[in-house]
Amino acid sequence: MFRHLLLPMTLFASLTLGACSGMTGPETSDLVEASARQSKTGPATVQIERTLKRKVAIARFTDETRHRNASALDQNDEQAGKQTMAMLSRRLSQTGKFMMVERSDLTTAAAEKGYPGAQQQLIGADYLIVGSISEFGRSAESEVGMFSRNKIQTARAKVDVRLIDVRTGQIIFSQEASGEASAEVNTTGAGQKAAYDASLDDKAIAAALGQLLNPLVNNLLDQPWRAPLIGEQDGMYMLAGGQSQGIAVGDEFKLMIAGQIVRSPQSGILLELPGKQIGTVKVESFSTQGDKEVSLASVVSGRVDASNLSKLYVVSARPAS
Questions:
Q1: Burial of residue 233 (number of CB atoms within 10 Å: 0-12, 13-18, 19+)
Q2: Is the domain 226-316 a CATH 2.40.50 member?
Q3: pLDDT > 90 in the chain, percent
Q4: Fewer CB near the terminus (10 Å): N or C of the chain?
């Protein structure tokens, strides 16, 4: 009888092991095949679009709220405004789409000119940004327990910016945005107080700038990129700007002559009529003198009047980016 019982048990064990083996085998195989496919395909290639960089300067950023105490002020402006300017300049620079030009510390830059061997040569900006912190507030909410106190501190800020075309003085973009930042602080024991977290001020302003960044960048990129012709040498024409602005050898640009300057009878403001294309130029090489970059271009089509260079400029032949 023992022999009759042993046979079914042995058969059952064999079937169970076979089933387990059949379940785990295909999963391991699938993983190996998936890994092999991944190693063959490799990482995806990301193509970075080249952008012609606009020259941008932040002229000033003021704190109109007077929320800081007198110890936070320096001789020229409020520290909050300077910190906000630095934040915005850093964020615009990190996009890789703009050449940021210093305008806020020109007094310091001018002082350097007095040192031996120093010579100040300012790079002209295409667009100016003017901004302000228009509103700022703090609040605190407390929840008191038997042995502890929980406090939520909040800072709120509103920031305004205006984008100005340097050539015309026209405000081409204006917007305001709000931001806030909060922190939760817990104190234990009678008589204990939680100090205000001063970092919330900067975080609230940074949050407001984050709301402004995309529309500001998009409006800057919507503006046409242009560079003036500044001279002629051995049949090659010099364009203001070089590799740091995204220009490359082989790039072709539309050669334009500036439109007539007229005065608006309503506002009295001088207006420049649209320019006219008179040819095409192609970048052949670059020349650099210190921080000054020049692109040397040949004429592909059209004719250049060397006596009329002050009215000539180039614009991108490809869509704005």
A1: exposed
A2: no
A3: 35
A4: N
Confidence of residue 292 (pLDDT cuts 50, 70, 90): confident
Question: Residue 195: what residue type?
Answer: A
Q: What is the pTM of this model?
A: 0.68
Which residues touch 72 (CB under 8 Å, ≥6 apart)?
Answer: 78, 79, 80
> Could you tell me which CATH class the domain 54-222 is placed in?
alpha beta
Please report, for the chain, the start and end positions of each structural domain, with discontinuous segments joined by +: 54-222, 226-316
**SS3 (DSSP) at 188:** strand
> Starting at the edge strand that comes first in sequence, how are the strands of the sheet with 54-63 ordered?
98-101, 54-63, 127-144, 148-165, 171-188
Between residues 238 and 10, the one the model is more confident about: 238
Amino acid sitting at position 132: S
Nearest alpha carbon to residue 98 among 223, 6, 202, 203: 223
Question: In whole angstroms, what separates CA 4 from the centre of its chain?
Answer: 83
